[in-house]
Amino acid sequence: MRRLFALLCLIMLGAARDPILVPEISQHEVEVRQGFTGTELLLFGAILDPAGTRAGRDYDIVVVLKGPTRSITVREKQKHLGIWVNAESAEFRSAPTFYAVASSRPIDRIVDTRTAAIYELGLPFLQLSPIGTIDPGIQARFSAGLVALMAGDTLYQQNADAVQVKEQVLYQARIKLPSNVQTGTYTAETFAIARGRVVASAISRVEVSKQGFEKGIADFARNDGLVYGLLVVAISVGMGWLAGRLFALR
Amino acid sequence: MDVYLPIANLAVNGLVIIALGGLTGLLSGMFGVGGGFLTTPLLIFYGIPPTVAAASAASQVTGASVSGVFAHSRRGGVDYQMGGMLVLGGIIGTGFGALLFRLLTALGQIDTVINVLYVLLLGGIGSFMARDSVREIRAQRTGIPLPARKRRHHPLVANLPWRWRFYRSGLYISPLAPLLLGMATGILTMLMGIGGGFMLVPAMLYILGMSASVVVGTSLFQIMFVTMATTMTHALTTRAVDLVLAVLLLLGSVTGAQVGANVALQVRPERLRLVLAAIVLIVAFRMALGLTYRPDAIYTVSPL
């Protein structure tokens, strides 16, 4: 009984000593407008004791920035009759359109694979929720294919030295958003990890949206296809005609 | 000069796109083809999503063909009756093409079909044109004229029911022939984002047997209307027409088309055709390599 009580005290004490994370992002709204070539987000914050003082321990920080998810089909090309054609495919219900993980050290040195899988830390541990029953081996092959493809477009990133922790209190991470990001709500989840255990986490949000002319065009094309199409046709005829006239004058 | 494309969802170098439009415009002015067969693959190569590339390249071809049609109609080089039948067939074909596009996209085979079509059509027509122009050039060198072609049009065309007189083309054939030809190009336009001029011109010459003076003008007339229909169909179904991309391409191509038309006046037509044949064959060869070599991206992603 006494031993159990002591254990309980230890757990509560441990819980009470868990630090709190105060995260912040350099911009909560990313505006995609003319001339947008991507942007760099600065994710920073502090790790504090519940008492508000500095935690006084070494922490590892992992920041995960995740874009809106979508359902996708991943297709695999195989060689048939001498040409490469799409053969097998797999469907995933929740593939993020953007996923970047920044950490202060390589993730496999911060946590074990089980913890990494639970918190989705790192590209190999992305949870894509495959649709239908699918052989784990095949699923792993398609997931790896998807990750490699998205990483090639810098839409999936994993950077093991993108987080700096200063004086056991302040941390900052930099994540680049390329120009081909999807619009929507992005979540930035920050994890403070000590001795292989996630001791604190916090979420903040970034809204990526088209603005101004770009928003106008995208909405126009989506909501009023007929008028939009007529406008494009009119512009192409007009420009062709104008060029003909201008050159004929010379 | 970075320009963000609102439908394609990415930033591109505007000058590169204008130059690309200029290059294809040059070809269209010189050879009377739309140049779409070059634009679409190059845009995809540049990283534009294939659907957006095909949808937006169509409007560029419209622009390039408009000025050509005006120039040709001034000197009576357009057979409106024949053109009308081709356009009618083309618009029906665009509808079929849209259905086919949707079906193939659902099956995941659209890329393969597009690539195979490119290789077969460009390869076939390219070698045909090359053989023809080499023969003609050789005939001029040696001074031995080529034997006159005996048959005006293909026997299949002669077998079609009811006949009309097409005065400007100098033909007495069934209107079904241009209608079917128009349909075929309409389907290709929708699938490949091309005007189909490179296919239409030889078909008009060798299958229909139209008189050469109206071939280029009439083909441009058909291309102009069919690409308009394609743009509309894409705007209503795939919603993948990118206005900004189209304007950039147009800027280059309408200028290039005018320059090309001037160049065309100074070069002998059979030489011109040999150059076009070479370009067409190179594109076909590159596409064939892409099909048989292990591709860089084994995996592709499409939204469900």
Automatic annotation (TrEMBL), chain B:
It is found in: Cell membrane; Membrane. The chain crosses the membrane at residues 7-31, 43-71, 83-104, 110-130, 171-198, 204-228, 240-260, 272-289. Keywords: Cell membrane, Membrane, Transmembrane, Transmembrane helix. Its main location: membrane. It comes from the Bacteria. It is a multi-pass membrane protein. The keyword Magnesium does not apply. GO terms for cellular component: plasma membrane. Belongs to the 4-toluene sulfonate uptake permease (TSUP) (TC 2.A.102) family. This is Probable membrane transporter protein. It comes from Novosphingobium flavum. The lineage of its organism: Bacteria, Pseudomonadati, Pseudomonadota, Alphaproteobacteria, Sphingomonadales.
